[in-house]
Design a protein that fits this description.
This protein has 172 residues and is an alpha/beta fold. The protein is built from six helices and six strands, in the order E-H-E-H-E-H-E-H-H-E-H-E. A six-stranded parallel sheet has the order 3-2-4-5-1-6, with helices on both faces. The chain is globular and about 45 Å long.
Length: 172
């Protein structure tokens, strides 16, 4: 068995989650087990991602339909317990070796939003077995987490239109 790696996609550019999902599909296509825990995404657009199951298991712990950025400060604080549950679940998945790849989508933004500390994220990663791969995404830069990582990709936009195109939501 190959040693599990920790890889990070971070930065202000779009495509971090897409890159992580591409990696998840690559693992699943090779017959590996994959779990994705999404943070700060709300319950929107889950229908499409659930089509990837059972090969890729998707978990979200927030209980609001809106993305985290759209919530009021009080609503964000109300979601903190759900986010903590998501981190605890991720640690359990790593402890039990439930998957070959665990994706922690938008986990890096939890610190900036005051929903978790870098120490809590390091605590989750400390449960990783030798052979489990972990991918983290988000806008934030966490020095100790980055030091622990094997690969770090900074997703930086080089050219963007003045107005970002709106991608219509499918009625599923």
């Amino acid at each position: 068995m190959e040693k599990g790696m920790i890889q990070i996609y971070y930065g202000e550019g779009q495509g971090k989650t897409s890159a992580a999902l591409g990696n998840a599909i690559k693992f699943a296509s090779a017959g590996k087990t994959v779990c994705i825990v999404q943070f700060m995404k709300g319950q929107l657009s889950t229908n499409y991602l659930t089509r990837l199951e059972p090969e890729i298991k998707i978990f979200r712990f927030e209980r609001t339909p809106e993305c985290f950025d759209a919530l009021s400060e009080q609503e964000k604080q109300d979601q903190k317990i759900n986010i903590t549950n998501g981190l605890n679940f991720a640690k359990k998945v790593l402890t039990t070796g439930e998957c070959d790849l665990l994706v922690l989508d938008e986990v890096l933004g939890l610190v900036e939003e005051g929903m978790a500390t870098e120490e809590e994220i390091l605590n989750v990663l400390g449960a990783k077995s030798l052979y489990t791969h972990v991918t983290l995404t988000g806008r934030g830069s966490l020095p100790r987490v980055f030091e622990l990582a094997d690969m770090v990709y900074n997703i930086v936009p080089e050219k963007v239109p003045p107005v970002m195109p709106v991608i219509p939501q499918a009625d599923v």
